[in-house]
Amino acid sequence: MPFFDIIWLALRNLREAKLRATLTSMGVIVGVAVIVTMVSFGLGLQRNMLSRFRALDLFNEIRVFGKSVFTMAMANVDSKLRRDENPGERRGPAF
């Protein structure tokens, strides 16, 4: 089938089914617009949050902790408030 016959057949089908062609093209347009909007919105939020973190100087320091999460959590707690790290060991005078 020659190329011009295929184009003529496609255009004839589009003329005969105007509503279907219109709804399909509107669906494609809305779908592409939504995808573009969501991607640009996400990139804008990411850029905004990174600029706020940079303004707070949160990316200037790296901390590396060892052993466990408990030791990391208890690193800045007052020694009076800490639980016994060795529960079998007594800390005060025995009564």
Level of helix content?
55-70%
Q: From the helix content, strand content and strand pairing, which structural class follows? A: mainly alpha
- Shape assignment: rod-shaped
Tell me the fraction of residues in β-strands, as a range: under 5%
> What's the helix-strand series?
HHH
Oligomeric state, counting identical vs distinct chains: single chain
Number of strands: 0
Mean pLDDT: 80
| Uncertain ranges | none
Distance between the termini: 104 Å
The helix count comes to: 3
Structural Rg = 33 Å
**Largest sheet: number of strands, sense, barrel closure:** none
What does this structure look like?
The mean pLDDT is 80. With 95 residues, this protein is an all-alpha fold. It has three helices and no strands.
Summarize the topology.
Layout: H1 3-16, H2 18-55, H3 69-73
Name some characteristics of this structure:
95 residues; rod-shaped; single chain; mainly alpha
Provide a brief overview of the structure.
The protein has 95 residues and is mainly α. It contains three helices and no strands.
